Amino acid sequence: MSVKLGVPSKGRLMEKTFDWFADRGLILSRTGSEREYAGAVEGIEGIDLVLLSAGEIPRELASGRIHLGVTGTDLVQETLVQWDQKVEPLAELGFGFADLVVAVPGAWVDVDTLDDLDAAAAAFRARHGVRLRIATKYHRLVREYLRRGGVADYRLVDSQGATEGTVKNLTAEAIADITSTGETLRANHLKILSEEPVLRSQATLYRSRRAVREPEHQAVLSALYDRLGFEVRNRVTV
Amino acid sequence: MTGIATIRAEAARLRARFEAAGAQPVDCAILQPAETLLDLYGEDIRARAYVTQDPSRGEQMLRPDFTVPVVQMHMAEGAEPARYTYAGEVFRRQEDHPERASEYLQVGFEVFDRADPQAADAEVFALFEQVLKPHGLRAATGDIGILTAAVQGLKTSERRRAALMRHIWRPRRFRQLVDRFAGRSPVPATRAALLEAADPLAGAAPMIGRRSAEEIGERIAALREDAAEPPLAEGQVALIDAVLAVRETCAFALDHLRDIAVDLPAIHDAVERFALRCEALYQRGVDIHALDFEASYGRTSMEYYDGFVFGFYAATQPDLPPVATGGRYDALTRQLGQGASIPAVGGVIRPDILLRLTERTAA
Question: Is the Cα dihedral A120, A121, A126, A129 positive or negative?
Fold first, then answer.
């Protein structure tokens, strides 16, 4: 059995991942037709490339079906309970930067901090009889962040896409979403709170702590870690 | 490992004790409408309870406790006064503690009685103490009512008192607000700029969403009023801190709180209710000279309690969750009573924890 490396199956994240490995002498490529999600690794023998949706990579790592995987910090921390017991970050890849932030309408000149957001939520509930809605797909991270920030009287509503549009569409009063430049937020008349973001995320290479290691994997991983220039401590098997 | 049959038998035994104490056995649906619970506990409940979707009934929750449905049942159809007991599973998500049980039994005893609330507090506590006596547990007690009375009595604006009341159950946020009102923490630069601006809404982004320009204007007016308000006096902060720091046996705590009440007369009535409760406990044979009282007890985990609170712990096994918890929840009956309300107090025992204690002691 080969060592399995999971990488995002499409888009800029896939291209940048391929570039990152290519800079280190490993050629990742898709095999077969454009539409087929199969791949190959040249440069070291014994590694299988598995192309997956970035959102599925955390679960595949946690279940041990892949040994290594590239995905965003945000997805790992949102998807995996006690993520640090299931995966270990080996390297931050220096792209795919994005912050998970809380944003409110730019017109809310009175709301700039979590303290403001909490006060606005209390007044909103008193007036409208319902809790202030925050649209997001990062339920766990955002709930924990708002709990630590002492925000009450809000409710999270699920939004799996086009989250920036929910305020204008009256399905939420505020949002929590991933942004890299803030451009889409501004275009939708939203502003980011002046607080530490919920999370600073970037594309990261993770190692599964759960995957079964077979004896022949050790040499393959050693060669890979040499090529990637990792410290020796990362080679210790669990 | 204790089998489920053994735990059920223990639950039945405990429920029989509560029945013998005059309680009528009741049961509740496992699936509860999520909306009621979300309104009471806020979004945090989603992290602690299992939410499921029903195509026609909407969001449902696996009951995280019995108190809410028992209160609803009593408010809808109960005769007064009433004593209820129940035994059944509750369900709790354990995101951060996968090692803890996500499904366990609770056996409860709840009293709805207007006649003498302090006597009812003492009745419930004394019953729990008696039932749990063979296990040699440590009891902790507190009184959220004294804390809320202290906040209500602060010499500051109604708005600040309301903000503090809202966060009594979030000690960190409460402290942050006290610091801000006392002028101990700096005003954020954006807040200062907002307060100074002649027309804060000038040049702002277009209005979108349900929160209106009027609401924004109201908050700015409120912030300006608050900025003009003198800081909360250090003496007032010291009084709140003094109340929160009370931690001794009931008899000493009562003396101590009466001293504080000289400078903070707003807590006088609440402290005298505590005195009546101590007397009622004493009448029922509880040793109030040995019973611990902590003014801040029950602040973090028991959001619907608003008066007497208590818990029983295995003193020598701090890794175990509390064996029993309970308290007074008058406000909850008001929230769920659609106009009606009734003084209510109760508590639950976890038979599984009780059995684990017995096993460990035997081992």
Answer: positive
